[in-house]
Structure formats: structure tokens, C-alpha cells
Amino acid sequence: MKIDLTQEQYEALLKMVYLGSWVANSPQEEPDEEYDAIEQHILSYAKEFGMDKYVAFDTKIKTYVPTEEFENHTGIGNVLDAYNEYTVWEALVLSLARRDLIKKHGAGIVEKMPDEELLEKEYLFIQKYEEEFSEHGFDNLYVKARK
């Protein structure tokens, strides 16, 4: 199979592959070989598309790597920053909402709740935390010491 891309489409693909690889591999100690192979394949076409300023071949490790210029001049850092901020807030809101739901109803009851009821009851807590963090950020968030 052959896929034809314009230079602009290839640049967008480079960004998507970089982001996908970053999301998939960041929490891992070792990179996922399948994703790494695809990333290497896509990066290997950079010169053909006139994007060699964004991709270099590291002869020591025999691997294509995004250049500093790619990371600094394509807006990819802004995308990653926005994604990180979103995931922090999303994980915090969902974790606190689930904690409060379990505190109110008990773990056993929450586990047995039908999905629709679970979503309805949990959504009240989600709304509460979304409003709080939207208005105050981390200002009112404290860790309570155990006695």
C-alpha cells in the first residue's frame, strides 16, 4: 500500500506520531517496540519531504530523532503542555468524585450500581470538583494529615 502526502500533511503526521509515541511511551520504562518501529519508519521519510530540519539520524544509536527545532518551532510543546494540564485536572476530578461516591454509598454498592445510576450519581461530584477547580485551581486543595 502506498499513501501520498503533501509536505503539510507529512508535517502533521510527524506531530501526530511524536505525540502518539510520547503518550504511549512516557509511562513505560522501555519504549513499545511496535510503536517505536512505526515512529522510525515515519521519521525516515523526513528528508524526502524537506523536513530534515525536524528530524536527524543519530549515528551512535542508529535511530531517527526529532530535532530541537522540531520540538521548539512546531508548537508541539504547547500541545503537550495543554494535554498534560488537561489530564492532571481530569484525573484529579474523576478520582475525587469516585472517592466521594464510594464514601457516600460504600464500595460494594458502587460496584453493583447499574452504569446509568453510577454515572448520574458520580456526575454530581464531578460537577462539584470541576466548578471548584475551574474557579480556584489548586488554591483550596489541601492534604489532610492523618491522626
Task: Walk me through what this model shows.
With 147 residues, the protein is mostly helical. It has 2 domains: 7-73, no CATH class; 76-136. Helices cover 64% and strands 5% of the residues. It contains 6 helices and 2 strands; from the N terminus they run ααββαααα. The protein has helices at 7-25, 33-43, 68-73, 76-105, 107-112, 115-136; strands spanning 55-58, 63-66. It has a two-stranded antiparallel sheet with strand order 1-2. Helix 1 packs antiparallel against helix 2 and helix 4 (76-105) crosses helix 6 (115-136). The radius of gyration is 22 Å and the shape is elongated. It starts with 6 loop residues before the first helix and ends in an 11-residue tail after the last helix. 8% of the residues are buried. The mean pLDDT is 94.
Helix content: 55-70%
Low-confidence residue ranges: none
Q: Return the domain count.
A: 2
Mean pLDDT: 94
State the total count of DSSP E strands: 2
Order of helices and strands: HHEEHHHH
Question: Count the helices. How many?
Answer: 6
Radius of gyration: 22 Å
Question: Structural class, please?
Answer: mainly alpha
Strand-residue fraction? 5-15%
Q: State the end-to-end CA separation.
A: 64 Å
Main sheet record: 2 strands, antiparallel
Strand numbers in spatial order across the main sheet: 1-2
Q: What is the molecular shape?
A: elongated
